[in-house]
């Protein structure tokens, strides 16, 4: 059984009014336990709408979303769904409201009525997972932190709930590239160490292409493609309107191919591109 199943899901905002808007149309896909999936697509394609179905903030207008085999619409399972699925909204740092980092990260576990020792363990664990030094940062006011630090604290607040499924809507938006890559690296570690299922909504597939197992491309409320990043890039030209940018390593390979060099055109990383260039030089 897949951990997440979307079965022919339609979503309509303001249904039955003159301003109704279909933002998901017959969306079907599965996510396996422990997978890391990127959700990409042009602005307005339905990415945020889609991920808000996973913890039941939005319920399907038609069809079903199942998490561990249970429909998100089942009221009696709501609490366990919220514990299982951690959702990090766009710009989550706007929701930091406590006077210290410690209290902010502890908010979720305290809400779960966990004993203080367990709350403390989780705060330490979550801050470490996002690359922050517990002793250094725990008593700081969130207001005094840099943008990147605030983002990490906000993500730590969700990690402290220890969700089995972690959904992040544009987690690197507005961060400088070095900070963004570091945060993504920590999310990858979390996936690999804890078998956490991770879904990342992003405009920047280039940034995550080498770390995700699968990419889901949305286009005008529909799933246009679901497969590995390599499969996606090898079919890139068949995906008009997806608004995808190529990773620099792949652009380099396509440039070489245009100049008559026989190189692989499914590379994702600079290391792979270097290996191809060295091979081409030897020929
Ligand atoms: N609360 C809402 N009320 C009405 N329409 C909405 C609402 N939220 C989103 N929409 C519409 O649904 C469609 C999908 O929006 P959504 O935010 O899911 O797209 P997205 O792919 O996440 O876009 P972006 O990349 O710009 O964040 C858009 O046309 C949007 O205008």
TrEMBL record:
Listed PANTHER family: ENERGY-COUPLING FACTOR TRANSPORTER ATP-BINDING PROTEIN ECFA2, HEAVY METAL TRANSPORTER
Protein's membrane topology: Peripheral membrane protein
Alphabetical list of InterPro entries matching this protein: AAA+_ATPase, ABC_transporter-like_ATP-bd, ABC_transporter-like_CS, ABC_transpr_CbiO/EcfA_su, ECF_ABC_transporter_ATP-bd, EcfA2, P-loop_NTPase
Keyword vocabulary terms for this entry: ATP-binding, Cell membrane, Membrane, Nucleotide-binding, Translocase, Transport
UniProt-annotated location(s): Cell membrane
Subunit-structure text: Forms a stable energy-coupling factor (ECF) transporter complex composed of 2 membrane-embedded substrate-binding proteins (S component), 2 ATP-binding proteins (A component) and 2 transmembrane proteins (T component).
Keyword Transferase in annotation: no
Main localization category: membrane
GO cellular component: ATP-binding cassette (ABC) transporter complex
Lineage, opening ranks: Bacteria, Bacillati, Bacillota, Clostridia, Eubacteriales
The organism's place on the tree of life at top rank: Bacteria
Protein name as annotated: Energy-coupling factor transporter ATP-binding protein EcfA2
Function, in words: ATP-binding (A) component of a common energy-coupling factor (ECF) ABC-transporter complex.
Similarity remark: Belongs to the ABC transporter superfamily. Energy-coupling factor EcfA family.
GO molecular function, one term: ATP binding
UniProt xrefs under SUPFAM superfamilies: P-loop containing nucleoside triphosphate hydrolases
Enzyme Commission code: 7.-.-.-
Keyword ATP-binding belongs to the record: yes
Residues in ABC transporter domain copies: 7-245
């Amino acid at each position: 059984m897949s951990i997440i199943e979307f079965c022919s899901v339609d979503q309509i905002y303001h249904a039955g009014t003159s301003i109704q808007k279909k933002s998901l149309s017959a969306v079907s896909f599965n996510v396996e336990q422990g997978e890391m999936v990127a959700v990409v697509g042009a602005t307005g394609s339905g990415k945020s709408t889609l991920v808000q179905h996973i913890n039941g903030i939005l319920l399907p207008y038609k069809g079903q979303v199942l998490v561990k085999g249970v429909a998100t619409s089942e009221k009696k399972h709501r609490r366990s769904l919220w514990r299982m699925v951690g959702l990090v909204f766009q710009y989550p740092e706007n929701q930091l409201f406590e006077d210290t980092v410690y209290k902010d990260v502890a908010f979720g576990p305290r809400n779960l009525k966990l004993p203080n020792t367990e709350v403390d363990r989780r705060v330490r664990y979550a801050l470490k997972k996002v690359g922050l030094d517990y002793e250094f940062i725990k008593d700081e006011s969130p207001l005094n932190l840099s943008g990147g630090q605030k983002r990490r604290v906000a993500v730590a607040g969700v990690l402290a709930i220890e969700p089995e499924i972690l959904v992040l809507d544009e987690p690197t938006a507005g961060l400088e590239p070095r900070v963004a890559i570091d945060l993504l690296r920590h999310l990858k570690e979390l996936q690999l160490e804890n078998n956490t299922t991770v879904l990342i909504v992003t405009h920047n597939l280039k940034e995550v292409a080498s770390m995700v197992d699968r990419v889901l491309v949305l286009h005008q409320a529909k799933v246009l493609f679901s497969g590995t990043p390599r499969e996606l890039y090898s079919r890139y030209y068949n995906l008009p309107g997806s608004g995808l940018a190529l990773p620099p390593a792949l652009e380099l390979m396509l440039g070489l191919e245009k100049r008559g060099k026989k190189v692989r055109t499914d590379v994702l990383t600079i290391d792979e591109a270097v290996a191809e260039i060295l091979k081409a030089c030897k020929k």
